[in-house]
Amino acid sequence: MAAEMFTFIKDIFVPKASKRAPLRTVVLIFAVVCGLYIFSICIKQQTNIFRQPNPLQIQVIDRRNRACRNTQIEEEDIPYVHFPKPEAFSRQECVCNPVRYFVIVSMQRSGSGWFETLLNSHINLSSNGEIFGAQERRNNVSVIYKTLDKVYNLDWFSSASKNECSAAVGFKWMLNQGLMKYHEEIGEYFKRRGVNIIFLFRRNLLRRMVSLFANAYDKEAKLLNGTHKSHVHSPHEAQVLAAYKPTLNTTVLVSHLRGTEQMVTKALKWFKSTRHIVLYYEDILTNRTKLVEVQDFLKLPRRNLTSLQVKIHRGPISGQISNFHDVQKTLKGTSYENFLNTDYKL
């Protein structure tokens, strides 16, 4: 009986040799190999899911401080939101406060100084002045990039710097301070770094010309007690500076106005692909809701913006040019004739 039982068990677990045995073995091996291959692929895909975020998540992490990933930022704002890490100081409790970069693009005597004081009255904004007025900061693109990096990293210090808790940081840049010369490289930098442009120009280019000549004269004459001032803070100081009435060269007047107009047009064209807003000095004077638009543009909480600066040249332009009648004859019939009569109440 025991022998029979042993024979039965042997028949079950020890397959008998047959011609079909090699075929079954090959099929079994193939099935095992396929199973292991499929299993390895599944494991690899599962691992990638946990290790590799989607493209949007990659962008968020690169743009933002890893410690601030819970900060609520709309998807469309991601390219324009930054978390700088200054080398000179720590942002401390404001480390997770997002910062927006901006630049005020303008021309001399277009109200940019007054406009910048308005912006700097906002507790969360720092505009650092005309930093490229110094020639050595714009000798070449590399130097310009280095200066821009320092400003936007919050390592540029001026009287306007809010340091740790700035929500918007920038400066003002005149068209003739390297901006037009290196416009392609600078435009690429603005888009790469997510810089917002605030264009500020003056509609009445004739009044701007009067202001240019008057300011140049005061640099030499120093009418205010031997001190030159581009901007004043009292009606008396404004009256002293406005007493000078320049004589304009009517021979080149039209060509000069046309050249200024063309420069503005080129700037708007060359930087049109960068996120921007266009403002005019006269519009801000007559409509303070423009300042609300600027704050909304920079995604800042709305504040009442103020400035202590006093306007220098007031009243009709006929009283501000010594040879006004010659200027009037020169501009009559041209596209600039309206400069003689507009905004005289400002």
From TrEMBL:
The keyword Transmembrane appears for this protein: yes
The name of this protein is Sulfotransferase
Q: Which Pfam families match?
A: Sulfotransfer_1
Family to which this protein belongs: Belongs to the sulfotransferase 1 family.
Q: Look up the EC number in the record and give it.
A: 2.8.2.-
Mind listing the UniProt keywords for this protein, alphabetically? Membrane, Transferase, Transmembrane, Transmembrane helix
Query: Which residue windows are transmembrane per the record?
Result: 21-39
Q: Which organism is it from?
A: Handroanthus impetiginosus
| Listed GO MF terms | sulfotransferase activity
Q: Would the keyword rRNA processing be found if you checked this record's keyword annotation?
A: no
Enumerate the spans annotated as Sulfotransferase domain.
Answer: 102-301
EC class name: transferase
